[in-house]
Amino acid sequence: AQSVTQPDIHITVSEGASLELRCNYSYGATPYLFWYVQSPGQGLQLLLKYFSGDTLVQGIKGFEAEFKRSQSSFNLRKPSVHWSDAAEYFCAVGAVSNTGKLIFGQGTTLQVKP
Amino acid sequence: GAGVSQSPSNKVTEKGKDVELRCDPISGHTALYWYRQSLGQGLEFLIYFQGNSAPDKSGLPSDRFSAERTGGSVSTLTIQRTQQEDSAVYLCASSSPGDLQPQHFGDGTRLSIL
After folding, report:
1. pLDDT per residue over A11-56, tens digit each?
2. A66, A97, B20, B91: most buried by Cβ count inside 10 Å?
3. Please, what is the average pLDDT of chain A?
4. Best residue in B103, B104, B107, B110 to probe A by mutation, most A CBs within 10 Å?
5. How far apart are the C-alpha atoms of B16 and A90, rounded to whole Å?
6. Mind giving me the DSSP string for B13-27?
7. Are A101 and B91 a contacting pair at CB < 8 A?
8. CB A76 within 8 A of CB A58
9. Contact at 8 Å (CB) between A67 and A80?
């Protein structure tokens, strides 16, 4: 079955510390991978996406993610977290053959300590 | 330019009533998606419209849920005989023509069933 797993429901980091949010997927077709961020009361904003090519992709707000096919993972990273990064983060997978429909993980809530 | 617009932003209704949620996509976006976000859960795909093609309704949870898209633009999601388990945030997204164009999300409608 197609699925996306974000093992960490809640993560707390100190401002200025590095961050890694985990995402594992199970998908029969060639996956296309996305990370979205959701601030309270708002919709989702696309951070970055991976379709093909270089497995390390750069996104907005200083985020990057690395696609590792052997581990079925697409972890999101940021070298230095800012207080404004506190939000909920969603990993999603899609495929051309799937009409663009995305399958989302459960989300990881990031709290940033001053 | 204007983003995806959803109305109302909040809706409180009594169990058993019908509700209509509206989505106005970004101009020129031919693809439109509805998702449901329940408390503590990820986003659940509901329905997808692409141009004049038949919609993908595979995510609708029951026959109480329906959606239409008039003139290839505005979409309405209707829930009949609402139940308490229908309480959630309903998110609409739209995307440009072409495979796996990024989905742009509205801020959602928070639906509460009393």
Report:
1. 999 999 999 999 999 987 778 899 999 998 888 999 999 988 888 9
2. B91
3. 91
4. B103
5. 32
6. E-TT--EEEEEEPPT
7. no
8. no
9. no
